[in-house]
Amino acid sequence: MQRRNRPGKRSSASSFRWIGGLVVMGLICAGVLVMLAPTLVTNYIRAYLQKDDFRHKVEELVAARVGGSVHLAPILWNDDNATAADFSVDSPVWKLEASGLHAALEFSAIRNGKWSIQNAGADELMVKRMPAGEMSRADEGLAADFDSSGDGIPSFLRRYIPTKTRISGFDVHRFVFEQEGWKISETGLSLGGWQSGEVSVQAKLNGGKLQTPIQAPEQKEPLQFDVAKATLRAGKNQIQVSDATLRWKQGAEATMRGSLKHDTGAWQMLVHAKAVPLDEFLDEWWRQRLSGKVEGDVELSGAHGAPMAWKVNAALKGGELTGLPILDKLVTYTNTQRFKRVVLDICSASFRPQGDALRVENIIVQSNGLLRVEGSLNIRGRVVDGDFMLGVTPETLSSIPGAASRVFVEAGSPGAPPGLKWARVRVAGTIEAPQEDLSSRLVGAAGMSLLFDTPGTLVGTGAETLLKPVLGEDAAKMPGKILDSASGVIENGVNAGSGLINKVLPIFPVK
């Protein structure tokens, strides 16, 4: 007899099929949710970014980073493109003002776990580092991850929120940066790509002006340059300039490398300059006597509250020396007109501060076939003190009695051209009226030649000029005849020997 199931009871197989169906449906729903999660997150984000809550969240986030007040104008969205009229940061460390902000958010990248910002930039951006205070937070960075707390996104979707940021670049049409007397203005700025984890970003400047805290001699204002181009790297701690081309007056150009630290204000700069007009750094007296274009290397460094340290190695190109008092005397002594206007084939020196003085070392001045000068010079205020070696050709000394045998008797330096006769020359006095001891020693040599050399050697314009302090104007014109015809002159000269020696001694001690 067939057994029938009791009414109201289900078989266990039916129950299992029902439970299995629920499991399958649950798995399908979970899979659908997983597949839809990025889309749901994107939709939530699209809606959230258009709310004032997001703008306030950005202000709070930036304010927490910089330790000051932040203002962001309402954000206007057009599809994926966002614009804001202005943005500002006011903190003890930084002042920042931007206008005409714009950017595009690539929402499709959210599914790959990244915030991707494209075509970002601003019409104007001003950044100023305040002179006092230090970074309030060592964790300060160029950008921050999106903070999604309190945004209304369900907790099960939060793991899909991106934690990485990528910015393709940032362009500014008019950029201004200021720190500790340095100012970059009227320039275009292009920042390179940046992504989370990086601590610096490459930047390029195009055009504009660079104002420095450096005030050169005879310049009424600190130096200011036109920026042709500049490549640098900006980080949270410093700015490094790897390549910059600057231009100055009268076609001068310089290439520059250096760095500037934000926290201490410490900076250093290496500059190679060329075609720099020398007359810009000379006073009126020297401007009339020395000309040419300067080329050389400059090392500078400084810090907040510390004096600037510097060193210059420079060479003068196309230099000419005219109307220097010692040159005028050499024209008279030697009857060599080339001393009136000396073309400088070599003119170089090193400059550096030494206490309250300016030290000029490794001076080399050469006019081929005429003279060479080597030595050093100290300038303290308007007072000068120099020690030089002067080398001239033997022909130059032929008309100066006693010069070759009693004055130009030093050994020349190994690197000097051969065949020159050398004398040590001391220079002292002021920049406007420097005095040298060479003239007095040439007078002394002429006087000694008058006493000990043959009368035939005391002829020529040079002898006449040099003997005037010894014999007087009339006698100096014909010393040979006087010596031949009047023995009393010799006797009187010998009797007055002490006075003669006093007249011919150098005005400076000779090393």
From TrEMBL:
For whether the record's keyword set contains Transmembrane helix, the answer is: yes
Q: Which UniProt keywords apply?
A: Membrane, Transmembrane, Transmembrane helix
- TM ranges are 21-41
Write down the superkingdom of origin: Bacteria
Q: List the protein's name.
A: AsmA family protein
